[in-house]
Design goal:
Blueprint: E1 2-3, E2 16-33, E3 38-57, E4 60-71, E5 75-86, E6 91-102, E7 130-141, E8 146-157, E9 169-179, E10 184-195, E11 210-222, E12 227-244, E13 251-258
Antiparallel strand pairs: 1-12, 2-3, 3-4, 3-5, 5-6, 6-7, 7-8, 8-9, 9-10, 10-11, 11-12, 12-13
């Protein structure tokens, strides 16, 4: 895409023309609740990525490909939560603050078979420590078997690493869930993402950053009282990028969560 429009491959000349990128993220997470007020979560992702672009060099078009499965940047997020119960309306509200860091645990020197290092936006790690701040509100309505939530989160790198600093990120989410039965639930989310341009001599500020809005329907199934399967399909309904960028036609999330 360029701006808010889809374009053809090579339609707007660049030093390298992006062709295709497929990313599969495998994420393990642990959430620990100290008490009703405090909790902490740790996530450790692994990125499985396949990327191809055409390098334009002195009139020649040279295909370059990177395929790798590597550890990405882990996150540690603390949580302070409050609860309010409205007995007359049969509702229960949770609201709180999130605060923590994205850690520089991911690789940032991935090379292809020819020994060429992938551009920094492709690397599984940024090399920076990012501060993360957020807030959320969740309202549960047991009498109508439903709940809804809103949340926002800001992420910003504290420094640059090897002349590269990822742009800030702001995410806003809103969602609704309805329990069809004791086991099945359906969900609908709207997700907004604002990304600022990357900076530094190793960045590509002209071709990074943008504004994105997605709709994400989903379904969940409680295998037991302690284990749940879930699936989301995310479709873009608005995208506007800086410069020329690859964008996803769709994304999917499939997972399992368990309490113990």
């Amino acid at each position: 895409m360029s701006g808010g429009s889809k374009i053809g491959f090579g339609q707007i000349p660049r030093h390298h023309d992006e062709l295709k990128s497929t990313s599969r993220n495998w994420v393990a997470g642990l959430d620990y609740i100290f008490n009703a007020d405090w909790g902490v979560s740790v996530t450790a992702p692994v990125v499985d990525r396949d990327h191809t672009h055409i390098h334009n060099h002195r009139g020649a078009q040279l295909p370059e490909t990177w395929r790798f499965t590597e550890m990405a940047d882990a996150r540690v997020i603390g949580r302070r939560q409050w609860m309010a119960e409205q007995k007359d309306s049969g509702t229960l509200s949770y609201y709180g603050l999130n605060f923590g860091f994205k850690l520089p645990t991911g690789s940032r020197d991935i090379k292809n078979a020819a020994g060429d290092r992938a551009e920094r936006t492709l690397q599984p790690g940024t090399g920076t420590t990012d501060v993360i701040l957020g807030a959320y509100y969740n309202r549960v309505m047991p009498l109508s078997d439903s709940s809804w939530f809103v949340q926002g989160q800001w992420q910003s790198a504290l420094y640059s690493r090897e002349d590269y600093k990822p742009g800030d990120r702001l995410t806003l989410d809103a969602g609704y869930r309805y329990e069809l039965s004791d086991a099945f639930g359906v969900m609908l989310q709207f997700n907004a993402l604002k990304r600022w341009r990357d900076s530094g001599s190793q960045a590509e500020p002209s071709d990074t950053g943008g504004m994105f809005l997605f709709i994400s329907p989903g379904v969940s199934y409680a295998v037991t009282k302690a284990a749940q399967l879930y699936c989301y399909l995310q479709k873009p309904i608005h995208q506007h990028v800086n410069g020329v960028q690859l964008t996803a036609n769709w994304s999917a999330v499939v997972g399992v969560s368990a309490k113990f």
